[in-house]
Amino acid sequence: MALQALQSSGVGLRKILSHFPEELSLAFAYGSGVYRQAGANSNQKDAMLDFVFTVDNPVAWHSKNLKKNWNHYSFLKVFGPKIITTVQNNYGAGVYYNTLIMCDGRLIKYGVISTSTLIEDLLNWNNLYIAGRLQKPVKIIAMSENVALRSALDKNLKSAVTAAFLMLPESFSEEDLFIEIAGLSYSDKSPEGQFTQLMTLPKSLQQRINHIMDPPGKNRDVEETLLQVAHDPDCGEVVRLGLSAIVRPSSMRQSTKGIFTAGIKKSVIYSSLKLHKMWKGWLRKTS
């Protein structure tokens, strides 16, 4: 069943956006604060709102945001926008998060990522952190006319379709696919077809697959490895392992960076909220 956006959420989200510097190439919101979750019975107005802001010039954006929202930042704010941007770009998945912020009576969290970093992740799946989020339902609040960004967003979804198909069995239902690719159909999974699809996957995923499959000392090129994988009955599992090799390290690095960007106290509180949410979800499933 398709997720439903909460009534009047667009107006409220744009109002929150007005509290931040305007220079955004993309702004979107996601999660239970935006979409009505299946089986959720709690007041969703209490749910944290999650945002991602994409900016062309992180130093300039953080500089303006520090003037408007100084209290949003951890102790790193005393070092200024250049250090904040260095932490953003060089550690974790290229995202700087401020969390547990009260804005217009709502608890919010927002991440800041540079446009160039996002485009690289959308095209090549360098870490699949924000690119992975954009393969799921999100509420776009603002988007510039950046042609390269729009093209990369489209390519990311097409890559998701390809990867998902490679991991599915020969026959599958609508429920096996993301809602964005539910209408697609394919005639068969021949080795030739799988090889064509593997060759269109983002560069980082191809390289991870090559690393997994290439025997020590042989040093085969990526194309040769992908041709072998295309004929392998476990092709889908190999793709899944490649994805895991991308996502797990980037998520761990981003979580570690959160201790510094959010501060220890906020990190502990945020982790407790996440665990509480997971526990409630588990109770619903078992009841």
UniProtKB/TrEMBL annotation:
InterPro entries recorded: Tam41
Subcellular location: Mitochondrion inner membrane
Record keywords: Lipid biosynthesis, Lipid metabolism, Magnesium, Membrane, Mitochondrion, Mitochondrion inner membrane, Nucleotidyltransferase, Phospholipid biosynthesis, Phospholipid metabolism, Transferase
Cofactor: Mg(2+)
UniProt entry tagged with the keyword Cytoplasm: no
Highest taxon of source: Eukaryota
Pathway the protein contributes to: Phospholipid metabolism; CDP-diacylglycerol biosynthesis; CDP-diacylglycerol from sn-glycerol 3-phosphate: step 3/3; Lipid metabolism
Recorded topology in the membrane: Peripheral membrane protein
GO molecular function, one term: nucleotidyltransferase activity
UniProt EC number: 2.7.7.41
Family stated for the protein in its record: Belongs to the TAM41 family.
Job description of the protein: Catalyzes the conversion of phosphatidic acid (PA) to CDP-diacylglycerol (CDP-DAG), an essential intermediate in the synthesis of phosphatidylglycerol, cardiolipin and phosphatidylinositol.
PANTHER family: PHOSPHATIDATE CYTIDYLYLTRANSFERASE, MITOCHONDRIAL
UniProt-recorded name of the protein: Phosphatidate cytidylyltransferase, mitochondrial
Species lineage: Eukaryota, Metazoa, Chordata, Craniata, Vertebrata
